[in-house]
Amino acid sequence: MSRATLLKSLRIAWSVAWGMVAVLLIALLVRSYWTLDSFGFRGPTHSRAVVSENGVFTASIIAQPGRNTWENYVRPLEAPPDLIGHLSVGYYPDESQGIWSLVFPQWLLVLSIGVLGAAPWMLKRFTVLGTLAFFSRR
């Protein structure tokens, strides 16, 4: 197998793998408008959780000791979607209650995964030198 064929096969495998991740994230995005999904770990000193609801991921660290167990739950959503949360990334520390949260829209993660999957194809066609040459023309 030649080097060019090997690189093309690796690019295809890379794109297919990230494409499958993107499709699963899109399914989770659609599901998040009807259900709240939570997955987390209760550790000896802190609990960590990732929550998916209304098209937004929330990753939290909570200063609450636990039993060293993994937990997940699913429940129907009751609150309407917050449209501001769909457009921004936020960090919300609440040190008085010992909660630190990072909130980001799921579409941003899907877009990032799509770009990551397409990167080998873009990098093949667009090099830094070629880009500099294109923009230096008058």
Question: Which helices and strands occur, and which strands form pairs?
Answer:
Layout: H1 3-31, E1 35-42, E2 47-53, E3 56-62, E4 69-76, E5 90-94, E6 99-105, H2 106-125, H3 128-136
Antiparallel strand pairs: 1-2, 1-4, 2-3, 3-6, 5-6
Helix pairs in contact: 1-2
Report on the structure:
With 138 residues, the chain is an alpha+beta fold. It has one domain (3-136). It is 42% helix and 30% strand. It contains 3 helices and 6 strands, in the order H-E-E-E-E-E-E-H-H. The chain has helices spanning 3-31, 106-125, 128-136, and strands at 35-42, 47-53, 56-62, 69-76, 90-94, 99-105. Strands 4-1-2-3-6-5 form a 6-stranded antiparallel β-sheet. Strand 1 (35-42) and strand 2 form a beta hairpin. Helix 1 (3-31) runs antiparallel to helix 2. The longest helix has 29 residues, at 3-31. The chain is elongated, with a radius of gyration of 20 Å. The model has no long low-confidence stretch (mean pLDDT 85).
